[in-house]
Design goal:
Blueprint: H1 3-48, H2 56-80, H3 84-91, H4 94-107, H5 137-167, H6 173-198, H7 202-210, H8 227-257, H9 260-263
Length: about 260
């Protein structure tokens, strides 16, 4: 056996192992630095985010929910027969229709996805009954989806703040305290929405969730992760509102041509 060759082979293996270990250590340090920079940037972004100035998608969601509330108020007046002029104003608002069409177009996926299932609006096809958005099963489903997405947004943001605390940035302590207070307020708002939904006030619960002021921007970490789901929910709400509007228009046309005792 040539011991010199063996020793050289062992030495070469040792050198390779040392180089690999050094490279792994350098890469680990680099990953930690990148992660720390990402966390600091995310916290700075949340600190700069004013809760009373939400992102474009959040504003659009609120606008669509507001239209749903106005349509339901108009349907309530139509059902009671009181203040017909006010009911007409609420249900014939061209600006609301334009907003829903715009929201639908702005949130519809650009690339074709899976085949769209035809919605079941049979709850609105009862003769003599005013179509009510609050009684549609899809509204409850969308309320639940929006609640879960909002809960995830808060959880992700809390995780980022927790990681920032581990990094030990003393200058961000006040900001982190404000962020935690904002997240606590958002969680309390979700619990209030749960109580409304449990009491049968699904539309009010949806409004409560949509109006939550969270210090989480829609761009970057961590808010960007939930944007696709929020966009899909806003699109579904806009489509539901447009179908409700069409059902109300159809009902009003029937009432106009039938004798009062039949239309009512």
């Amino acid at each position: 056996m040539d011991w010199n060759n063996v020793l050289w082979a062992l030495l070469a293996a040792l050198v390779i192992a040392l180089v690999a270990t050094a490279l792994a250590w350098v890469q680990g340090v680099r990953r930690k630095r990148v992660h720390a920079a990402l966390v600091r940037d995310a916290v700075a972004r949340m600190c700069a985010q004013r809760p009373d100035r939400p992102g474009r998608l959040t504003r659009l969601t609120r606008d669509v929910v507001d239209v749903l509330l106005r349509q339901e108020a108009g349907a309530d007046l139509l059902d009671s027969g009181e203040r017909p002029a006010e009911a007409e104003r609420l249900l014939s608002n061209a600006a609301d229709t334009a907003l829903l069409v715009s929201a639908d177009g702005a949130t519809t996926p650009r690339s074709p996805g899976r085949r769209r299932v035809e919605p079941d609006d049979s709850v609105w096809h009862r003769p003599g009954r005013v179509p009510r958005i609050a009684g549609h099963p899809e509204l409850a489903q969308l309320c639940t989806r929006l609640r879960r997405t909002t809960e995830r947004r808060i959880a992700r943001a809390r995780l980022v703040v927790g990681q920032a605390e581990q990094l030990g940035e003393p200058e961000d302590a006040d900001c982190r305290a404000r962020l935690r207070a904002g997240f606590d307020k958002g969680t309390a708002g979700l619990l209030e929405a749960d109580e409304l939904a449990a009491a049968g006030h699904v539309l009010a619960a949806l409004q409560a969730i949509a109006q939550l002021e969270l210090p989480v921007a829609e761009e970057g970490v961590p808010g960007q992760a939930d944007v696709p789901e929020l966009r899909a929910q806003t699109n579904a709400l806009a489509k539901l509102a447009l179908r409700h509007r069409a059902a109300l228009d159809a009902h009003r046309q029937v009432v106009m041509v039938l004798p009062p005792e039949v239309g009512r």
